[in-house]
Structures are given as C-alpha cells and as structure tokens.
Write a structure and sequence with these properties.
The protein is an all-alpha fold. Helices cover 80% and strands 0% of the residues. It has helices at 2-13, 22-41, 59-64, 68-95, 100-112, 116-126, 128-145, 152-175, 178-209, 215-271.
Length: 275
C-alpha cells in the first residue's frame, strides 16, 4: 500500500493539481473587482459633466451608481470565473491524456484477458487520477495473487480496499474549490438582495424628504437597486453553470473508477476457484 501511495503522489506532481490556497484567488479578485468598479465604471467620462455624483452618461456609469456592493458582486463574479478556469485545467489533468470511455473499455478488456502489462502500459499512457487508481488496483491484484496465506474473499477485499484508498487520495484534487463555487451560487443572489435593499432604502429616504429636488436621489436609489439585482443574478447564473458543469465531469470520472474497480475485483473472483 505504501507503494501505491508513493506512486500516486508522484503522479500528482506531474500534472496540475489545482490551487490549494483559494483565498489568494479571492483576494486578487477582490482587488480587481473594486478597481474595475471605481476606476473603470467610475471614470468621470462615464458621467455627464465629468462628475461621479452626477447623472450617468452610459451603462458603465449606471452600473457604478449601484454603489460599493457592485464591487463585491464583481469580486464574486471574477472569483467564480477564475475558479472555473482552475477547475478546468485541474480536472483535465486528472482525466488523463486519452479518451476516458476508450481507456475504460481497453483496460477492462486487458484485465479480463489477464494482460496486466498491457493494462499498466495503458495507465502509463493515460496518466491522471483514473490511471493512478487503476494502477493501484492492478498492483494489488498481482500482489494478492502470490500470497498463499489469504483466502479468496480476503484477497478480493484487499483489491477493493486498494481501489478505494487510491480513489480517496485522488478525490481531493477533483473536488478542490468546488465548495467555494457552490457558496458563490448562493452568495451572488444574497448579495444582490443586500444591494437591492440598500437601493430601496435610498429611494424611500428620497420620497420621505419630498419635493422635486429629490427626484435625482429617488432615481439613484432605484438604479442602485436594479443594478445590484441584475449583477447579482448574473453572478449566481455563472456560478451555477460552472458548478454543475464540473460536478458532471467529476461524476463521470467517479463512475469510470467504480466501473474499472468492480471489473478488476470480479475478474479475480471469476479466475480463481479457491475458497
């Protein structure tokens, strides 16, 4: 088992394993989000008369009027986009260099024919998480086959245990940062609601003041509410798509691992008649 762990660790180093310190991405995106909000959207050219406190001259100026909450929503949006790219490269590396369905079919055929050298060669060619787990299972298959002290049931259990342990070593790489994406799905909507409430508070304050002079304050409050609603919904939409897309990718890898693991254990069971 130590050999399996060592081999898996070495394989991980050969590919992109993801960004473990996701808070660094969040911090950079926070700086980028508020910079875009203040310096790009808040550029004086986006307002009539060049005054940020005045009436917006275009869409960027209108979004800027959403207030500081826009910077927070942009932080979440930039974060989920960056994590989307991070997960793409990490899962692509974990998936290996061959087509997953083709690799699964070829390995199953090689194992059933007991051509383990051929199966190992396929793992070396494939690389990634799936190949690491398959290689660990095959190594244990060959190990228990030469062990005369164990009964058949114990040997099958050993093969299954090796498969499960290798899978557990690979799962953190696959699922890393997915909880943060899932959190942003909810935070986008909640932050939008927060910004909307702040905008409506501004609108009601303008109404309570009364008089035509406060019409600009009233429109500014409504604009703030709608801008935050729209940008927050957009952020949640992107986060939902990213989360579901990569969850589906992870599920496919997991199913492939389970399928091959079952095949290896079942092959040993059918090829050995001892008790």
């Amino acid at each position: 088992m130590a050999t399996t762990t060592k081999a898996t660790a070495q394989a991980k180093k050969s590919g992109f394993g993801g960004v473990k310190e996701a808070w660094i991405i969040l911090a950079i995106c926070c700086a980028a989000g508020y910079s875009v909000w203040y310096f790009v959207m808040g550029n004086p050219d986006n307002f009539i008369g060049g005054d940020r406190t005045g009436h917006p001259a275009n869409l960027l100026g209108t979004v800027y009027k959403g207030g500081f909450v826009v910077g927070l929503i942009l932080t979440l949006l930039f974060t989920v986009i960056c994590l989307g790219f991070e997960r793409f490269f990490a899962i692509k590396s974990a998936s290996g260099k061959m087509n997953l369905a083709k690799f699964t079919a070829q390995v199953k055929a090689a194992v059933k024919a007991q051509k383990f050298d051929e199966a190992k060669a396929l793992c070396d060619k494939m690389q990634g998480s799936v190949a690491n787990v398959v290689l660990a299972s095959i190594n244990m298959y060959q190990t228990v086959e030469t062990d005369s002290t164990l009964k058949k049931a114990a040997k099958i259990a050993k093969i299954q245990q090796a498969h499960e342990e290798a899978t557990q070593l690979e799962m953190p790489t696959l699922q890393m940062n997915m909880p943060m994406v899932a959190t942003i799905v909810s935070l986008g909507t909640l932050t939008a609601l927060f910004g909307t409430v702040l905008g409506m508070i501004g609108s009601f304050q303008a109404l309570s003041a009364g008089g035509g002079a406060d019409s600009m304050a009233l429109s500014a409050g409504i604009s703030e509410a709608l801008v935050n609603t729209a940008s927050g919904i957009l952020t949640s939409w992107v986060a939902t798509v990213v989360y579901n897309f990569f969850s589906n990718k992870i599920d496919k890898l997991t199913y492939a691992l389970d399928e091959i693991g079952f095949t290896i254990a079942a092959t040993y069971d059918s090829n050995h008649n001892e008790a």
